[in-house]
From TrEMBL:
<keyword id="KW-0663">Pyridoxal phosphate</keyword>
<dbReference type="Pfam" id="PF00266">
    <property type="entry name" value="Aminotran_5"/>
</dbReference>
<keyword id="KW-0808">Transferase</keyword>
<dbReference type="InterPro" id="IPR024169">
    <property type="entry name" value="SP_NH2Trfase/AEP_transaminase"/>
</dbReference>
<feature type="region of interest" description="Disordered">
    <location>
        <begin position="1"/>
        <end position="21"/>
    </location>
</feature>
<dbReference type="GO" id="GO:0019265">
    <property type="term" value="P:glycine biosynthetic process, by transamination of glyoxylate"/>
</dbReference>
<dbReference type="InterPro" id="IPR015421">
    <property type="entry name" value="PyrdxlP-dep_Trfase_major"/>
</dbReference>
<dbReference type="GO" id="GO:0004760">
    <property type="term" value="F:L-serine-pyruvate transaminase activity"/>
</dbReference>
<comment type="similarity">
    <text>Belongs to the class-V pyridoxal-phosphate-dependent aminotransferase family.</text>
</comment>
<keyword id="KW-0032">Aminotransferase</keyword>
<dbReference type="InterPro" id="IPR015422">
    <property type="entry name" value="PyrdxlP-dep_Trfase_small"/>
</dbReference>
<dbReference type="InterPro" id="IPR015424">
    <property type="entry name" value="PyrdxlP-dep_Trfase"/>
</dbReference>
<dbReference type="InterPro" id="IPR000192">
    <property type="entry name" value="Aminotrans_V_dom"/>
</dbReference>
<feature type="domain" description="Aminotransferase class V">
    <location>
        <begin position="32"/>
        <end position="336"/>
    </location>
</feature>
<protein>
    <submittedName>
        <fullName>Aminotransferase class V</fullName>
        <ecNumber>2.6.1.44</ecNumber>
    </submittedName>
</protein>
<dbReference type="GO" id="GO:0008453">
    <property type="term" value="F:alanine-glyoxylate transaminase activity"/>
</dbReference>
<feature type="binding site">
    <location>
        <position position="346"/>
    </location>
    <ligand>
        <name>substrate</name>
    </ligand>
</feature>
Length: 392
C-alpha cells in the first residue's frame, strides 16, 4: 500500500541539484494563489528585477521559464533560429553536444568548434570558424561546462560573435550566482540558466535573458517558432506585459515563490560576496583533495569553483566509492559524463551547499571510502589542509 513519501535527507554535493536553503523550502509551503492574481503579478515583477540583478543586465526580456534548464536551452535556439541558418557551436563537453542537437532539430546547420574535454573553448578556433563560415548568424557555447568543470572566456567569445555580426547563445546553467556573469558588459544576447545549481532553489525553472538585438531577431523571424510553449512572442504577453497580462500557461506558483526567495538570498549576500565565497571554499576543497593524494581534472586557470572535477585514482571503482558516500554518509557526488565517465568525480560546491561544513564532511567521507577500497590516504591531513586554506 502506498504512503506519503519522506526521503532520507542527503547532502547534495554533485553537479546539481544542490542543497536547498531552508528559507526556500519554507517559501514553497506558502498558500497557493492564482497565476493571474494581482499579488502574483507583483511577485513576477519582483522576480524579473531580481533576475536582472543576478544576470547583471537591464534586458527587459529577463524571465524564468516554467521548465528546467534544458527548456531554457531549447527556448534560446527555437526562438533565434530558422531552417537554413548556420550556427557555430563550441563543444568541450556534453552540453555543447546538446546545443548541436538543438541546432539540427531547428533545421539549421551546426559548424562545430571542438576542444578537449576539460579545456576551455579556444577563441582563435572560433574566429577561424567565422572566417570560413561568414554566413553564420549565431555563436553558441557553454560558459561553465557542467560535465567537465571547465570555464571558458565568455566575454571574449561574445565579443567575437559581435565582431562577425552574429548573436550569441550562452549556457550559464552552472554559472549564475557562482561566478561572474556580466550579460550586458559582455554583450551576450541570450543567456539561460537553471535554478537547481548556485541559486540553491528547487529544480524545474530556467532563468533566461534576451538582449534587445535578440528580441528584434525574434520579432522579425520569417516564420513561426517551432515550439508553441517556448515561443517568446507568446510568453512575452504573460511575463512582459506592463499592465494586463495575457494568459499563456499556468505558472508553477509555489516554485516561483521559491525562486523569489532564492534570488533574495543572492541579493542579500551580494554577487561579489557570493563569487568570493565560492572561490574560497573551492580553494579549501582542492587543498584537502590534494592532501588525500587526489588530482584535479582541470587546469587551475580554468576550474569552476562551484563544480570540481577530480581524477579517479587507478584501480578505484567509481561506482563503489559514490555508493559508499551515499549509503554510509548520505552524501551525493557526481559521476563523470560522456568521455569522462569512470574517469572523474564531480564535486559540487554550489550556493547554499558551498560552506566549510560540507567541505569537511566530503573530505571525511571520501577519505573513509577510499581507505576501505585499499587506497592509502590521510584524512586528518586533508582536513588540516582545508582548514588552513579557510583560515581556520
Amino acid at each position: 500500500m502506498s504512503s506519503s513519501f519522506f526521503p532520507t535527507p542527503r547532502t547534495l554535493m554533485g553537479p546539481g541539484p544542490s542543497d536547498v536553503s531552508p528559507r526556500v523550502l519554507g517559501a514553497l509551503s506558502r498558500p497557493t494563489i492564482g497565476h493571474l492574481d494581482p499579488q502574483f503579478i507583483a511577485l513576477m515583477d519582483d522576480v524579473k528585477g531580481l533576475l536582472q540583478y543576478a544576470f547583471q543586465t537591464e534586458n527587459a526580456l529577463t524571465i524564468p521559464i516554467s521548465a528546467p534548464g534544458s527548456a531554457g536551452m531549447e527556448s534560446a535556439f527555437v526562438n533565434l533560429l530558422s531552417p537554413g541558418d548556420t550556427v557555430i557551436v563550441c563543444q568541450n563537453g556534453v552540453f555543447g553536444g546538446r546545443m548541436r542537437e538543438n541546432v539540427e532539430r531547428c533545421g539549421a546547420t551546426a559548424v562545430m568548434v571542438e576542444d578537449a574535454w576539460g579545456a576551455p573553448v579556444d577563441p582563435e578556433k572560433v574566429r577561424e570558424a567565422f572566417r570560413k563560415n561568414p554566413q553564420a548568424s549565431v555563436l553558441a557555447f557553454v560558459y561553465a561546462e557542467t560535465s567537465t568543470g571547465a570555464r571558458s572566456d565568455a566575454g571574449t567569445l561574445c565579443a567575437i560573435a559581435k565582431e562577425f555580426g552574429a548573436l550569441s547563445i550562452v549556457d550559464a546553467v552552472t554559472a549564475l550566482a557562482g561566478i561572474d556573469l556580466q550579460v550586458d558588459a559582455w554583450g551576450a544576447d541570450v543567456v539561460y540558466s537553471g535554478t537547481q545549481k548556485c541559486l540553491s532553489c528547487v529544480p524545474g525553472i530556467s532563468p533566461i535573458t534576451f538582449s534587445p538585438a535578440a528580441v528584434e531577431r525574434i520579432q522579425n523571424r520569417p516564420g513561426k517558432v517551432q515550439s508553441w510553449f517556448l515561443d517568446m512572442q507568446l510568453v512575452m504577453g504573460y511575463w512582459g506585459g506592463d499592465s494586463k497580462r495575457a494568459y499563456h500557461h499556468t505558472a508553477p506558483v509555489n516554485a516561483m515563490y521559491a525562486l523569489h526567495e532564492s534570488l533574495l538570498i543572492v541579493k542579500e549576500e551580494g554577487l561579489e560576496q557570493s563569487f568570493a565565497r565560492h572561490h574560497r571554499n573551492h580553494t579549501a576543497l582542492v587543498a584537502g583533495l590534494e592532501a588525500l593524494g587526489l588530482s584535479m581534472a582541470v587546469a587551475a586557470d580554468y576550474r569552476l569553483p562551484q563544480l570540481n572535477a577530480v581524477n579517479i585514482p587507478d584501480g578505484i571503482d567509481d561506482g563503489a566509492i559514490r555508493g559508499a558516500l551515499l549509503n554510509d554518509h548520505n552524501l551525493e557526488i557526481g559521476a563523470g559524463l560522456g568521455a569522462l565517465a569512470g574517469k572523474t568525480w564531480r564535486i559540487g560546491l554550489m550556493g547554499h551547499a558551498s560552506n566549510p561544513g560540507n567541505i569537511k564532511r566530503c573530505l571525511t567521507a571520501l577519505g573513509s571510502a577510499l581507505r576501505r577500497s585499499g587506497y592509502a590516504c590521510d584524512t586528518e591531513a586533508a582536513l588540516t589542509a582545508a582548514e588552513i586554506a579557510l583560515g581556520e
